[in-house]
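Case study 2.
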Amino acid sequence: ITEQCEVASLTVATATDNCDGVIYGVHNATFPIIASTTVTWTYTDSNGNTTTQNQSIIINDSMDPVADAGSLPIVSVECQLTSLPIPTATDNCAGSINGVHNVTFPIMTSTTVTWTYMDANGNSITQDQSIIITDIDNSISQNGAELTANAIGYSYQWVDCNNGNTPISGETNQVFTATSNGDYAVEITDGVCTVTSGCAIVTTLAISDNDFGAKLNAYPNPTNGVYTIDLGDTYNDVTIKTVNMLGQLVDSKTFDSISKVNLEIKGESGTYFVHIQTLDGKQTSLKLIKL
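Prediction:
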């Protein structure tokens, strides 16, 4: 007997006995038969005399399953992927077949997942699916002293870049408004992955009432690029940072002890802010125009 997919029943075979006449055979098969095999029929008369006869069963399923989707969608997520919808294929014998993937979850880096569809007779096909893992957006937008993390729907912790990225108490919202000039960043997490933004420089706030900067002089201003800063007195541990109108850091230098220093703006023509700060918290700012 040759069939596609399976054999669900067999026509009962018979034998003729010299005493009992027609004897019906008893087979050793279990239905449905889904793989090629040999069935043995046994004929037994009333006196216990027996004979056997073999019958070949050939299952001719050689057709591969057919994927239900012509192509699988590209999956693009931030940080990690913990599961995937299981795609299916249709087999001529088994009907719907679930795909089996070759990856271990969670997926933390971009990769290609291979799905295998295999029927009961070993016919199989594969189908690939692209997985793109991207980092959480760690960019921030700045409007003066107001800083906003552009990634939406995460946990946030704003930090002080000038103090070893120390967390700022209570500043765990998407938007942070600085109360003093300085450098600030945000740590963004989804509970598994954490990214940190670049430091944004705030120089637009009023300077604390102290004498630092009272004797400050910067010249020439406007400048072709090279200029001199004269602090009027000698100060220790001084950091001088230059930022453009977008709040982007252009240059940063730290000096153990200075009263006067020559600097250069290497950016394009425009307006720049020079932020001067000492380790003990004295700070001031000035505006320079580069021709």
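Residues 89 and 114 are 14 Å apart (CA to CA).
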